[in-house]
Amino acid sequence: QVQLVESGGGLVQAGASLRLSCAASGRAVSNSGMGWFRQAPGMEREFVAGISRSGSTNYADSVKGRFIISRDNNKNTVYLQMSGLKPEDTAVYYCAADRIGYYVHTNPAHYDYWGQGTQVTVSS
To answer: Are 48 and 64 in contact (CB under 8 A)?
Structure first.
């Protein structure tokens, strides 16, 4: 059974930094494509960042230069380092795993497993 557990969300002021963690069990993150998505109230879930099996990364234009995705294979954990946070980054952030994982997919339909989400709120 694959489980993804996100943590690290919170309430911060604009300009602050946060690091989200996604701890995986039941499947190695090194054998998966891992993605971070977010969903604001009334909005569709949107791609934020992803990392493929080989370590290639991809980012949404809105977060390029501010967010960094990484993984620690020993801890079986994926991270999303967020800096320069803006109020428009406010959303529930979800971690997802793609069993194939050779490419970083931006469409959430390609992902097989999802975490429960962690709230990030950025005040102005």
So the answer is: no
Asked if residues 123 and 10 have their Cβ atoms less than 8 Å apart, the reply is no
Nearest-CA neighbor of 29 among 73, 89, 83?
A: 73
Give how far Cα 98 sits from Cα of 16, 75, 82, 120, Å: 30, 18, 22, 23
Backbone angles phi, psi at 30, to 5 degrees: -70, -15
Q: Torsion angle of alpha carbons 85, 86, 89, 92, nearest 10°?
A: 70
Joined together, the tokens standing for residue 66 give: 């501010």
At 35-74, the pLDDT tens digits run: 999 999 999 999 999 999 999 999 999 999 999 999 999 9
Helix (H, G, I), strand (E, B), or coil: what is residue 61? coil
